Amino acid sequence: MSDAAPAPGPAIILVRPQLAENMGTAARAMLNCGLTDLRIVAPRTSPLDERAIAAASGADRLLLGAKVVETTAEAVADLHRVWCTTGRDRYMVKPVDTPRQAAAAMRAVEAEGMRCGVLFGPERTGLENDDVAIADTVLTVPLNPDYCSLNLAQAVLLVSYEWFQMEAASTLPAMTKGAEGPASKEKLLTFFNHLERELDECGFLRIPDKRPTMIRNIRNMFQRAGLTGQEIQTLHGIVHELVTYRHKKGGA
Question: Where is the tRNA/rRNA methyltransferase SpoU type domain (predicted)?
Fold first, then answer.
């Protein structure tokens, strides 16, 4: 018998949920499939609301242990790979997975000792573009094109179920990464802030109407690269040296 601890599974991240009942039913869907890492971004009501507890139907321990934060960036900071659920074209260049494909990839990520998570948007509007830009991969459920409306708990259950059914051993091809795996989202977002600050300073992002789209495009380009922590440090150094050179040249 193996002494290895079971994989913790992906973090389920509810972004700005509107209804207490939906947080409860999402927790219930998670626990049915063995998932316990629930994170909630800026909920309209408390996850400990009596309606959420009642809807959890015995899975309220997930609500009691949920990590509640104010921003999506905080919710994904310790993760290495993030999927986002959306049924709309966001006009961003990102790979797209079905829940089954995502489950296989999540198992492979966990087999390498890394953490992953899935973003689920508000019930009425779905994720904002800035939330989608943080993710590495879009997760879309292939359903009847004439009617493909899912509530929050149904979406959580579909993803959780596919993860639960997927065998832990994965045969997905792996990329040699040396001693260090992909950087955490916290390191990546810190680099983005550094780069965008300097791009503002040099005037590259000077057109207000175009700035949000340009920033999302830049972030998506770097995220597709699967950067390691060491590579992030190298990029910080590159930006720093370019800025230093520009200041020296300007003062010459």
Answer: 11-161
Which residues in 55-124 belong to E strands, given as ranges? 67-69, 81-85, 96-97, 116-120
Domain that holds residue 238: 185-251
> Do 31 and 62 fall into the same domain?
yes
**pLDDT at site 156:** 97
Q: Give the residues across from 119 on adjacent strands.
A: 13, 84
> Per the structure block, which two tokens stand in for 55?
């809807």
> Hey, what's the torsion of the CAs at 101, 217, 39, 96, to 10 degrees?
-10
Helical pair 211-223 and 185-202, crossing angle rounded to 10 deg? 140
* In a domain? residue 67: yes
Q: Which of 71, 77, 10 is nearest to 37 (CA)?
A: 10
Number of domains the chain is built from: 2
Would the pTM of this model clear 0.85, i.e. be above it? no
CB atoms within 10 A of CB 134: 24
Residue that is last in its domain, among 130, 165, 200? 165
Mean pLDDT by 10-residue block, N- to C-terminus, for the chain (252 residues)? 59 96 97 96 96 96 97 96 86 90 94 94 90 93 85 95 75 54 91 96 94 94 91 94 83 62
